[in-house]
Amino acid sequence: MQVKPRRGLTVADRVAGPIPDLVRRNFTASAPGEKLVGDITQLNTGEGALFLATVIDCYSKSILGWSVDEHYDAELVCTAMTMAAHRIRLPAGSIFHSDRGSQYTSYSFGRLLREENVRQSMGRTGICFDNAMAESFFGKLKTEWMHHRHFATKKEARREIIRFIEGFYNTRRLHSALGYRPPIEVLDEWFTNQQVA
Predict the structure, then answer these.
(1) Where would I find the Integrase catalytic domain in this sequence (predicted)?
(2) Which of 14, 71, 146, 164 is 20 to 30 A away from residue 173, measured at CA?
(3) Which is higher by pLDDT, 194 or 67?
(4) Are 182 and 173 in contact (CB under 8 A)?
(5) Residue 51 DSSP class
(6) Of 52, 34, 32, 30, nearest in space to 42 by CA
(7) Distance separating alpha carbons of residues 194 and 147, to the nearest angstrom
(8) Residue range 65-88: mean pLDDT, rounded
């Protein structure tokens, strides 16, 4: 089996101010939206590269937000974060954690987090373990869904990415950390219990 070369997309922003690591590799949470992690990956097609940005809920392991585009700029991560903020109500002071890529240190992304009352957290540059939960999801996407297929078009790849996230990962994929339940079941159970209480 030939191992595909890993291409890093993180380009650190040298002028970004200090942003602390509020997560410190603890990817657990006591409620949905309390702690979120995000990252970007590249997926190749016969028509060129596509880029996927995700926002993952540490409580339910759900992909709350995602965005697919031909460019990996600040708009890509802003779109994913906006989707997450519209999907569930984020608690005040929740945390969004990522690497130190320029998309995440951009003014537009920082402003979006402030508007949503979300605190920003970042791991160290070049230390993948500091964002291991986001890296793990991309590993699953590629090994379980993408690597054994060839996508002739970007439209075809985009359709399969959405199918994996919304049609399988969030709704049917069982997670040992969730007691072998899918993310949507854990998320629905939490909100049902809140309404009863």
Answers:
(1) 28-190
(2) 71
(3) 67
(4) yes
(5) E
(6) 52
(7) 40
(8) 97
- pTM value is 0.90
Residue 38, token pair as written in the block: 């995000």
User: CA 160 to CA 153: how far, in whole Å?
Assistant: 11
For residue 39, give the amino acid letter.
D
Give the 3-state secondary structure percentages of the chain, helix then strand then coil, rounded to 5: 40, 20, 40
Tokens of 150: 């060839």
Please list, in sequence order, all residues whose beta carbon lies within 8 angstroms of the beta carbon of residue 193, skipping any fewer than 6 positions away. Answer: none
63-68 CB contacts, 8 Å cutoff, 24+ apart? 63/137, 63/165, 63/169, 63/170, 63/183, 64/33, 64/36, 64/88, 65/38, 66/161, 66/162, 66/165, 68/158, 68/161, 68/162
Rounded (5°) CA angle 89-174-149: 100
* Element containing residue 8 per DSSP (H, E): none
Structure tokens, 67:
């965005």
pLDDT of residue 14: 52
Q: Give whole-number Cα distances, 104 to 171, 173, 186, in Å.
A: 28, 28, 28
